[in-house]
Amino acid sequence: MTDLTRNISFATNITIVVLTFILVVRFFRENGKWSTARGKKAFRYFTTQSNVLCAVSALAMCLFPDKDWAYYLKVMGTAAVTVTMMTVLIFLGRIYGYKLLLSGSDLFMHLITPLLAIISLCVFERRGISFLASFIGVIPVALYAPLYLYNVIYAPEEKRWEDFYGFNRDGKWPVAYALMVAGTAVICVVFYMVLHLS
């Protein structure tokens, strides 16, 4: 990286870290008081988990910009929030309404932070990654899916989550899972191609 791209990368990544920290702290506040229950509920959502992962990867890039592991973590975090953004734009926005999902804190977690992560990775941090390694971006979705499945379908009834993503609608969980993993894999391939542009 040149000094300019390194500085822009740092500024973008630190912005992601600060924004995400502020939003996550707000999740633990309710009616002017700390609420652990509200905060824990926020972490049910892949949106929250992916944004926190992205913030951790952004912090790693700020501290260790030349380390391969930090770069791979950034690829993973960026892929995760890209899945969040695309799921909202293509699927959830049509169900719950784009105005609802692109306002308040959701505007940052569903759109602004993902775009910042994509721009920083693909423009200011771009360097080669092997085709196989690019699929590291599938890991967050692959890990979240069984967690969601258990808590929506198999957990004790009093502890179950509502099917807020609608992935088990009409019992079509396997189809939804296959589509999410396949869609994430496509995102990883696109990143692989962009990161190898000369």
SS element count, helices: 9
Total strands: 2
Return the structural class.
mainly alpha
Rough shape? globular
Kindly state the percentage of residues in helix.
over 70%
Question: What are the low-pLDDT stretches, counting only 5+ consecutive residues below 50?
Answer: none
Radius of gyration: 17 Å
Distance from first to last alpha carbon: 14 Å
Q: List the strand order in the largest sheet.
A: 1-2
Main sheet properties: 2 strands, antiparallel
Mean of pLDDT: 93
Structure characterization notes:
Strands 1-2 form a two-stranded antiparallel sheet. The longest helix has 29 residues. Strand 1 and strand 2 form a beta hairpin. The protein is built from 9 helices and 2 strands; from the N terminus they run H-E-E-H-H-H-H-H-H-H-H. With 198 residues, it is mainly alpha-helical. The radius of gyration is 17 Å and the shape is globular. The two termini are 14 Å apart. Helix 1 crosses helix 2.
